[in-house]
Amino acid sequence: MSRIDEVRAQMMQAMKDRKKDRKDALSALLTALKNKAIDKREDLTTEEEDAVVLKEIKSVKETLELTPADRADIIEECKFRISVFEEFAPKMMGEEEILKVVKGVLAEMGIEAPTAQDKGKIMKELMPKVKGKADGKLVNEVVAKLVQ
Q: Rounded to two decimals, what is the model's pTM?
């Protein structure tokens, strides 16, 4: 079952359960997935579906960051949407898993004691391996701890 079918089924269930907020969030996600499929003119791969879900989560997080503190209604809606979208997001790598990949990249590159000057080269090799599997900010923090 594709992610579009999963989201559609969940949206139908939310409509039956009369959960308007959940239905609206799922509708937004379904629209994003369908638009990507229309742009591509064929079915999306799992990686592309994951990328769309992560992009939607990132978009809502940016909205949340820009929202004034006195707008509790918008803040609550954003937090709810993020929680709904995360149900469909791929499992992200933790700090320990990222550290293992970083150490593997360092071994491949032959770097035993990474310095701040090596960070760019390390990130260039590392990011294609963790793209879509780990948060870029977390990857950057892990590498920054190693190169100090």
A: 0.72
